[in-house]
Write a structure and sequence with these properties.
Beta-Lactamase, six-stranded antiparallel beta sheet, EC 2.7.13.3, kinase, ATP-binding, Sig_transdc_His_kin_sub3_dim/P
Length: about 950
């Protein structure tokens, strides 16, 4: 059997796939087969490296694997396989003789395949080295990171013969994988936005194990990796890790969208080598960039610090802070927040780029939002995207904008401004896009915030010092002017100084009198307001300075403030109102806390000066009053210096002692002519100098016996053991006191006798009243039982006689009968008036009801409380009081109606007799008593005898009320 000639191009094939394609074409012609496949072992598995003809779908690789394993030709149906070295020829519909003839070339085919594979390995390693060398030459030692990333993507795509590549560096790394930042591409039609996400599994393979991920659509399209690459839609892709010094940097991605594209093991090694070289270049560029940025940042911070330190005016400093912050960090807007005195609220003091409505309406709360959290924690707080960061808004207005999706910014950072001791505000930067700053940039913002804090604090201290100097000058001038004079012109000048110091357009100072009304008013740029407007301002006063709205301010004012002037003038207490200070301005902005604080200081200075002057005047008045008291006192008053020399003596002392010792002023108190009691005087003197209670003694000076009290006068505010300035001596002539005591004793005895006599009279009056009542009862009983009965019997006899008479005699008998009936009624009425039987039989209330019915004036009885019977004596007293009161009403009141009101109370009874008559005054009542009308006096005495009280209420034309309160 003749062997077919061996094709020379097989041994010269550059790659295994080229060898497979040439061998398939040669074998298909040689054996006249329908189709031929060439299989070769690549990467440990049998793969198709060449195809020719038709019918290849009949093969699934099983027969080829079997032939390679057995090392001999095998056939099955239309398929036949011829193994050679590391490959297999598979025929479809081949001539068996041709297959047998071709089997003689198996050793040559084995040598040719091994040669091609060896050349491919050698050529692959050189390819890697050449590609890496080309990348190094392309970079040329560049330290420009974007240039390095772009060159890496381009070199990888060209070296592999693929169409596209990109390089992305990680911006976020976590447990859920990683996210790249900006992506540098080659061969893509459109730019990438939003970065590339790397899942946890892929991230573990790339970074953890340092593997290259190979994606083939035919194999991996249904995998999670295929789903992640669906948007890129590659036919084949290689993903290599970028890392340096043990830290993950990013990924190198290379792909091809050409149908049938494949990636070999050499391609994998090539991509990995490129990634390693690129990682070194990227790391160097990043280090250089970091160092460059540090130098630039240091220079920028130095320039910023110099610029911020160039001004000590707060407004200028704040403007420079905002200008530098937006320029350094590329922010779209910035604002300086100021912490308010309440310690809970932040307002925007200065801003750049922020809408006016935002500046006016935002009032952030400490602890809420980015700015509030930065102030509360005293550290940087950043939100890369505020719409998704769930940090919320610091104010109600911000929360509304976020809820409505109208918040204009996404990236926000808050930086606290303050010293080590406290935070006074915050610097907040805003970006319309997500936060573009990395960790180094954020650290730079903290350094800048520290510089800004120092500059702002210096400006605040400087302006505070200037403000204090201006305020001190104003306060000094106010105190000096009012201390020299408190006239109207001086008060007007003080009003001018105070108004200008408060940056107001108009002002006034109003002083009040003891009644609280305004007595003096000095104005600046303002006509003196009418009394009604001043009274309205007085009604707005509080405990301290307070802003006034336009409604409560003087006309044409847009905003105003008012502060009371309070002091201890004249000893009226700390809250004594001296007046008030008022200032206003046409603008509508309310006065700041600083202005209110200055207003308090000015008001305190005004009140202090006015109080001091009033105290001096009051002190002069008190001194004159005390001198007047001392001059008019009957006691002896002397003042001596610490050595005992008398410096003052009142007239009483001079009258008593001058005849004995001569002139008192200049004499020594301790040498008074009192030899028998001198030791007692000296002991009292020593006690006065050493004891807070002073010293006391009884001494004899000539014929006089004096009780002496000595007390030391020390410097105000000194302790009880402080230096003695003088000794005050008060002495009383006991001889006069003894005379006075005797007189008091005599008069006391007389008063005791009068009291005893009054008691006897009151006892007598009580007994007399009881006797009188008993006599009335007896007379009433005799009139009722005797006289009335005799008259009744006589009237009946006359009546019988009249029935027996005719004519004129009968008429005379009837007249006599009428007179007898009238006499009977008169006797009965007289008996009832003396002692009504209803009182004894039925009690007080029926008796009072009968009494009301008997009165000439229309009278009603009103009862309140739990009704009960009283003691007979008390019921009689109440009845007589009411009877006398109604009698007075009938005689003198000229009333249309009257009322008896009885109130039963716990422990007693209260009776009020009221009329609507003409009434009277106390003078009229006294005049009537002097004329002999003793009705009220009798009532008062009867009430006193019963142990009660009488109240009289009466006014001319408004009637009279007599109220009896009786126990029982």
């Amino acid at each position: 059997m003749t062997l077919p000639p061996f094709p020379p191009d097989l041994s010269a094939a550059p790659t295994v796939r080229a060898f497979g394609a040439a061998l398939a074409s040669f074998a298909c012609r040689t054996v006249r087969a329908h189709g031929v496949q060439v299989w070769a072992v690549i990467g440990g598995s049998l793969s198709v490296v060449g195809e020719e003809g038709r019918g290849l779908g009949l093969s699934d690789g099983t027969l080829a694997a079997r032939a390679l394993a057995e090392g001999r030709p095998v056939s099955e149906g239309m398929l036949a396989c011829l193994p050679f070295g590391g490959g297999v020829l598979e025929f479809v519909g081949a001539d068996p003789e041709g297959v047998e003839a071709l089997s003689g070339l198996a050793p040559l085919l084995t040598l040719a395949l091994e040669g091609v594979q060896a050349r491919e390995v050698r050529r692959g390693r050189g390819r890697v080295a050449e590609t890496v060398e080309q990348l190094v030459r392309r970079l040329g030692g560049s330290l420009n990171l974007p240039e390095v990333l772009t060159a890496t993507a381009e070199s990888a795509a060209i070296a592999l013969g693929f169409g596209r590549a990109f390089v992305g560096l990680f911006s976020e790394v976590g447990e859920d994988g990683a996210q790249t930042g900006e992506v540098f591409t080659y061969g893509f039609d459109s730019a990438f936005t939003g970065g590339i996400a790397v899942g946890p599994v892929s991230f573990s393979r790339l970074v953890g194990r340092g593997e290259v991920i190979l994606y083939e659509r035919s194999r991996d399209s249904a995998s999670p990796l295929g789903a992640g690459l669906l948007e890129l839609d590659p036919e084949v892709a290689l993903i290599a890790p970028l890392s340096a010094r043990g830290k993950p940097l990013g990924v190198l991605y290379v792909d091809s969208r050409s149908p049938g594209a494949r990636a070999s093991e050499d391609d994998t090694w090539l991509v990995l080598a490129l990634a390693e070289q690129a990682s070194l270049a990227i790391d160097n560029a990043r280090l250089y960039g970091a160092e460059t940025r540090k130098r630039q940042a240091a220079e920028a911070l130095r320039e910023a610090g110099a610029a911020l330190a160039g001004s000590l005016h707060l407004s200028d400093t704040l403007s420079r802070v905002l200008e530098r912050a937006t320029a350094l960090f590329g922010a779209d807007a910035a604002g300086v927040y100021e912490l308010q005195p309440d310690g809970r609220t932040l307002t925007i003091r200065n801003a750049v780029g922020l809408p006016s409505e935002y500046v006016l309406r935002v009032r952030a709360k400490v602890g809420a939002g980015v700015t509030g959290r930065a102030v509360e924690r005293r550290e940087l707080v950043a939100a890369r995207d505020l719409t998704t960061a769930h940090l919320g808004g610091g104010s109600r207005y911000t929360r509304q904008l976020l809820a409505q999706g109208r918040y204009p910014y996404r990236g926000v950072i808050g930086l606290p401004l303050g010293t080590r001791a406290s935070v006074f505000g915050a610097l907040t930067l805003y970006w319309k896009e997500p936060l573009p700053l990395d960790a180094d940039d954020l650290a730079l913002t903290e350094v800048f915030a520290a510089q800004a804090s120092l500059a702002i604090e210096n400006a605040r201290l400087y302006e505070e010092e200037l403000r204090r100097e201006r305020e001190a000058a104003v306060l000094l001038n106010v105190g000096r002017l009012l201390g020299e004079d408190q006239g109207d012109r001086t008060l007007a000048e003080v009003a001018r100084l105070a108004t200008l110091a408060l940056n107001a357009g108009r002002g006034l100072i109003a002083l009040t009198g003891e009644g609280g009304e305004v007595t003096r008013c000095a104005t600046f740029n303002l006509h003196s307001p009418p009394a009604a407007e001043l009274a309205s301002l007085l009604g707005q006063l509080g405990r301290g300075p307070r802003p006034l709205t336009r409604r409560h301010a003087l006309p044409v004012a847009g905003s105003a403030l008012i502060v009371p002037l309070r002091g201890n003038a004249g000893g009226d207490g700390p809250d004594h109102l001296l007046g008030f200070l008022y200032a206003d301005d046409p603008g509508t902005e309310p006065p700041s806390d600083r202005v209110l604080g200055l207003a308090r200081s000015v008001a305190d200075q005004l009140a202090l000066t006015l109080t001091r002057e009033r105290l001096l005047s009051a002190l002069a008045r008190e001194e004159a009053r005390y001198r007047q008291l001392a001059e008019g006192a009957h006691d002896l008053i002397l003042s001596a210096d610490p050595a005992g020399t008398i410096t003052y003596a009142n007239p009483a002392a001079k009258r008593l002692l001058a005849p004995l010792v001569g002139p008192l002023v200049g004499a020594n108190l301790l040498t008074l002519p009192t030899p028998a009691t001198r030791d007692m005087l000296h002991a009292a003197w020593d006690a006065a100098r050493t004891r807070p209670a002073g010293g006391r003694a009884e001494i004899e000076v000539g014929p006089h016996r004096l009780e002496v009290r000595l007390s030391a006068v020390r410097q105000a505010g000194a302790s009880p053991s402080g230096t003695v300035q003088s000794v005050l001596t008060v002495a009383r002539d006991l001889s006069e006191l003894q005379t006075l005591a005797a007189e008091i004793q005599r008069r006391g005895q007389a008063l005791e006798a009068a009291t005893s006599r009054q008691t006897e009279l009151r006892t007598y009056l009580t007994l007399f009243t009881q006797a009188q009542e008993e006599e009335r009862r007896r007379i009433s009983r005799e009139l009722h039982d005797d006289t009335a009965q005799v008259l009744i019997a006589t009237s009946r006899r006359v009546a019988r006689l009249a029935r027996d008479l005719d004519g004129p005699q009968r008429e005379r008998a009837d007249d006599i009968l009428a007179d007898l009936n009238a006499a009977i009624e008169s006797v009965r009425r007289f008996a009832r008036n003396l002692r009504p039987s209803v009182l004894d039989d039925l009690g007080l209330l029926p008796a009072l009801e009968w009494l009301a019915g008997q009165a000439q004036t229309d009278t009603r009885l009103e009862v309140s409380g739990a009704e009960r019977r009283l003691a007979p004596a008390l019921e009689l007293t109440v009845f007589r009081l009411a009877q006398e009161a109604l009698t007075n009403v009938d005689k003198h009141a000229h009333a249309r109606s009257a009322a008896i009101r009885v109130a039963f109370e716990e422990g007693g009874v209260r009776v009020a007799v009221t009329d609507d008559g003409q009434g009277f005054t106390p003078g009229q009542a006294q005049a009537r008593a002097q004329e002999g009308h003793l009705g009220l006096i009798g009532l008062r005495e009867r009430v006193a005898l019963a142990g009660g009280e009488l109240e009289v209420e009466s006014d001319p034309g408004r009637g009279t009320t007599l109220t009896f309160s009786l126990p029982g």
